[in-house]
Design a protein that fits this description.
Elements (H helix, E strand, L loop, with lengths): L5 E3 L3 E2 L3 E6 L5 H14 L14 E5 L4 H11 L7 E3 L2 E4 L2 E4 L2 H15 L4 E5 L12 H18 L2 E7 L18 H5 L2 E9 L5 E10 L7 E12 L2 E12 L3 H4 L8 H15 L6 E2 H10 L4 H10 L3 E5 L5 E4 L17 E2 L5 H6 L7
Parallel strand pairs: 3-9, 3-10, 4-5, 4-8, 8-9
Antiparallel strand pairs: 1-2, 6-7, 10-11, 11-12, 12-13, 14-16, 15-16, 15-17
Helix pairs in contact: 1-2, 3-4, 7-8, 7-9
């Protein structure tokens, strides 16, 4: 027997997989990077506990290192020399985009080369799942390598996820998008949301929603502040507020759930996560999490337009395939798993009709 070791007592356990979930606009990535900055400095967390200085490793399928991630880390005061980023993998001598579901073994080797890391951030954590993110068995199988990596490296692994649409008043843990296995496998689940304070002002709350190894309530107010990381380089950072008491269900009211602008943003961010990675994605598989989360086909189509999604029709009785711009070239389709594509695009009229029928 041995006690649990903590990077941040009560929030970030060493050797375990954790989860940070919330609505778009709550600053989830900025929150994670604030924690990372504290680790690189050996600084103090908002409860004034501290940790030894250590390395952090960040993989993000949504944000660029140069214009977003590093500026936010530096704005939070991070030690630049202790910040590392996963950018690509080498497979059979060829440089390809990093795939968490495939490349965790090589990632472990890279961590050994770095000299160890204390915190690994995976954003979004759904990118580690190659199968159906709503099937418990597939999610558990896909997350197991991350669980094993955390145990092997003794690092805290923090995956970032979204809330499903709606669900006000429910236990926030139940609102994590995808299978319940995401929250079940994680030892600690933290949630973030915009709320109204007792004084009626807008604020944000980071709260513990679930913990198998410690207290599962309480949290901290925080605010997003715009600063310059360096001259001419704007970035957001976290300003911590006071500690708050109560369960996550009591603390998080999510007034943004009723805001149509935030709802549209939610759909865009969820679809972006589903289409993260190289190659083409079956449309039905990519859009299913959004439909299951309560978005209409019209909202999903609007989100795809905002992302400038490219579309191809599979041959014969095959369905449609989607990808975000900048994926594989046309020639590479011949070598992909779904190689037989028809060179057709839906017309504007068919696209509009698809909002009330089948998505293209």
């Amino acid at each position: 027997m041995r006690p649990i070791e903590w990077l941040w007592p009560g929030f970030l356990p060493r050797g375990k997989l954790c989860l940070l979930a919330g609505q778009p606009g709550t600053g989830k990535t900025t929150l994670a990077l604030a924690m990372a900055a504290t680790v690189t400095l050996g600084g103090r967390f908002p409860d004034q506990t501290s940790c030894p200085a250590g390395n952090v490793l960040v993989w993000s399928g949504e944000d660029d290192v140069a214009d977003t991630l590093m500026p936010r880390l530096l704005a939070a005061g991070a030690d630049r020399d202790r910040c590392y980023f996963v950018k690509a993998s080498v497979v059979d001598g060829e440089t390809v985009p990093f795939d968490p579901a495939r490349d965790l073994a090589s990632l472990l080797a890279a961590i050994d080369t770095i000299g160890g890391v204390d915190l690994l951030i995976v954003d979004p954590v759904v990118s580690a799942v190659t199968g159906d993110s709503h099937k418990n068995t597939e999610v558990r199988r896909a997350l197991q390598p991350l669980v094993d990596l955390a145990a092997t490296t003794d690092a805290a692994v923090l995956g970032i996820s979204h809330f499903s649409k709606g669900g006000q008043g429910l236990d926030p843990t139940q609102r994590v998008i995808g299978s319940v296995a995401f929250a079940a496998v994680a030892r600690v689940v933290m949630v973030a949301a915009k709320v109204k304070s007792e004084e009626g002002r807008d604020t944000r709350i980071l709260a513990r929603s679930k913990s198998n190894i410690g207290a599962d309530d309480g949290g901290f107010e925080y605010f997003l502040e715009q600063v310059e990381a360096e001259e001419g380089i704007p970035a957001s950072r976290i300003v911590w507020g006071q500690a708050v008491q109560g369960s996550a269900r009591e603390l998080l009211t999510d007034p943004a759930d009723d805001d149509s602008k935030d709802t549209a943003s939610d759909a865009v961010e969820m679809l972006r996560a589903q289409l993260t990675g190289p190659g083409w994605f079956p449309m039905q598989q990519a859009t299913k999490p959004l439909i299951d989360a309560g978005f209409s086909k019209k909202q999903v189509w609007a989100a795809s337009k905002k992302l400038n999604v490219e579309r191809r029709k599979g041959a014969m009785n095959d369905g449609w395939y989607w990808r975000r711009p900048g994926g594989d070239s046309e020639d590479s389709l011949e070598d992909s798993e779904h190689s037989a594509f028809l060179n057709v695009e839906p017309s504007e009229s068919s696209a509009e009709s698809s909002t009330v029928g089948n998505l293209r």
